[in-house]
Design a protein that fits this description.
This protein is α/β, with parallel strands linked by helices. It is 53% helix and 10% strand. It contains 15 helices and seven strands. The N and C termini lie far apart (63 Å).
Amino acid sequence: MARLSVLRHLLSNVLAGILLSAGFWTGYGDFGSGLCWLGLVLLIVSSLGARPRVAALGGILSGAVFYAITLRWIYTVMRVHGGLPVMSAAGVLALIVAAGSLFFAAFRLGVAWLARRSVARACLAVPFLWVTLEFARTHLPAIAFPWALLGYATGKNLTLLQLTTLTGIYGLSFLIAAYCALVAWSVKRLELQRIGGKPALAPAFLLLIVTPLLPAASRIGDRIVPQEQGQHSAHLVQTNFPQSPSYPADWMERHAAELDELHELSVEANARKPGLIIWPEVPAPFSLQDARFAARAERIARASRDGFLVGVVDWKPGAHGGHAPYNSAALLDPAGRRVFLYDKIHLVPFGEYGRARTSASVFLSVLRRFFRTRSGSSPPMARMCSSTFQMTAGSAGPRHRSST
C-alpha cells in the first residue's frame, strides 16, 4: 500500500512537469498559462509532507519532464547545426535536463522540510524559494540557463507584464508562485477540514478575494495600457549560410556572391520603405575588425534611414593576453559609424559557452567554433529612435530571406 502511495506521488510529479511546460507551448495562450499555474500548485501540494527521498526523486522527475519538453529544441540545434550524432546530441540535452532537474529537487526538498514544522510557513516561503532558485540557475558559472523561467508563462498578459518594468522577470515569477502557494495552502487546509480539523476559512476567504482580481486585471490592462502604433520600419534579413566548424581566411571572397545578394536584399527593402536594417547573429565570421566586412556594413548603413544592426564577432583583449571573441550585436548609424555594441551575456551551454577546456569528442564539432566565446557582463542601453517599430512579414529569394 505504501509503495502504491509513493508511485501515485511520483506520477503526480510527472503530471506537474507536463502541466508546467504547457505555459511554453506555442498557440495555447491563456489556456496554456492556466495549466502551467495548475502544474505548480500540484508540485507544491505534493511537496507538503513528502519524505526527503520522495521529495528529491519527485523533483528530479518533474524537472526532467519539464525541461525535456521545453528545451527539446536543443537536440535539434546540436543534431542539425552542430553536426553531432544522434546519441551525442541526445546526451547534450540530457546533461542540461539533468542540471535543471536538480533545482526542482532542491525546491521540493525545501518545501517538504519547511512543511514539517508548519504548512503555512512552507507556503509562505514558496515564492522566495522558487525565485531564489531561478536566479541561481540563471547565474550559474559556465552553464547559466535563463530559459523557461516561470514568469514567461504569462508573458502575454499585458497587465501582469507591467510588473517586469520594476522587478524584471523574477517579480512575475514571484507573483505566480505566491498565488499558487495560496491555492496549495487552501487545498491542504481543506484536507485537514475533511479529516476533522478546523474549517479552512482564512485561505478560502483569501482565494475568493484574489482569484477574481486576475481576470479582472487582465481586462482592465487591455484598456488602460497604451497601444502604440509603429511609426518606423525594420527590415530583417535572415541569412542562410552553412554551419562550419572553422572558417578559412578567404571566406569573404568565397561567399562574395552571397554577400552581394544579402546586400541587394537589404538595400531593395529599404528603398521600398526606409527603416532599420537587421542581420541577426549567423554562423559566419562577420566582424567589424575585418576591414572587408566593415566596409560592406558601412555601405549598407549609409543606404538606410535608421541604421544597420548586425550580429558580429567582436574581438577584445583577453584576460591572459591575446584577444577573445564575443558574440555581439553592433549598431551603425546612417553615417556608417558604430554607435552601439552589445555583448551577449547568457551564452548557450555546450554551444557558445566555454570557460573550461574539454577533450570529449562528443562536443568538438560544436565547441570548435564557439569554444572560447566570452559573455558580456552588463546589459547596455541604446536609443535607436523615439518611436516604436512595426514589422510585417515578407520574403525574397530561396536562399536568403528578408522580412519587413
